[in-house]
């Protein structure tokens, strides 16, 4: 089962393959900052993928469009910036997201 490490909190959780990063972490009792109904609209859940970017599902057109719309035309230049509510886990990853905390 894939494992997600979240920095700077330093937690690790197991995630069913195909689960979004956000749902997997929240299922273990943690709060993750969001601003919409986890639909890829607000980009508040955006995270930096420190390692394992290739072990996430590919970025879809909707995620890409909203990152550009909310954060500017260069937002998708760095593939490490992903939306936690859209990126699905396919293997072990380490991500950085401020605001993640015990719920
Ligand atoms: S929670 Fe709004 S874009 Fe992910």
What can be said about this structure in brief?
The protein has 103 residues and is of the alpha+beta class.
Write the layout of secondary structure elements.
Layout (H helix, E strand, L loop, with lengths): L2 E5 L3 E4 L6 H6 L3 E2 L14 E6 L9 H11 L9 E3 L9 E4 L4 E2 L1
FE2/S2 (inorganic) cluster (FES) binds next to loops.
Strand order of the largest sheet: 2-1-6-4-5
Mean pLDDT over the residues? 97
**CATH architecture tag:** Roll
Annotated CATH homologous superfamily: Beta-grasp domain
CATH class: Alpha Beta
Large-scale geometry: globular
CATH topology, anyone?
Ubiquitin-like (UB roll)
Percent of residues in helices comes to: 10-25%
Following the backbone from N to C, one meets helices and strands in this order, namely EEHEEHEEE
Radius of gyration: 12 Å
The number of strands is 7
Characteristics:
103 residues; alpha+beta; Ubiquitin-like (UB roll); five-stranded mixed beta sheet; two-stranded antiparallel ribbon; 2 helices; globular; binds FE2/S2 (inorganic) cluster
What does this structure look like?
The chain is an alpha+beta fold and 103 residues long. It has a single domain, classed as Beta-grasp domain (Ubiquitin-like (UB roll)). The protein is 17% helix and 25% strand. It contains 2 helices and 7 strands, in the order ββαββαβββ. The strands form 2 sheets. Strands 2-1-6-4-5 form a 5-stranded mixed beta sheet. It has a two-stranded antiparallel sheet with strand order 3-7. Strand 1 and strand 2 form a beta hairpin. The chain is globular. The two termini are 23 Å apart.
């Amino acid at each position: 089962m894939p494992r997600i490490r979240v920095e700077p909190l330093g937690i690790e959780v197991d995630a069913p393959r195909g689960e979004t990063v956000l749902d997997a972490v929240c299922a273990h009792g943690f709060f993750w900052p969001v601003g919409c109904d986890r639909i890829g609209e607000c980009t508040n859940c955006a995270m930096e993928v420190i390692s394992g970017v290739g072990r996430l599902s590919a970025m879809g057109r909707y995620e890409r469009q909203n990152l550009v719309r909310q954060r500017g035309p260069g937002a998708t230049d760095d593939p490490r910036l992903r939306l936690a509510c859209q990126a699905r886990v396919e293997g072990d990853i380490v991500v950085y997201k401020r605001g993640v905390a015990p719920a």
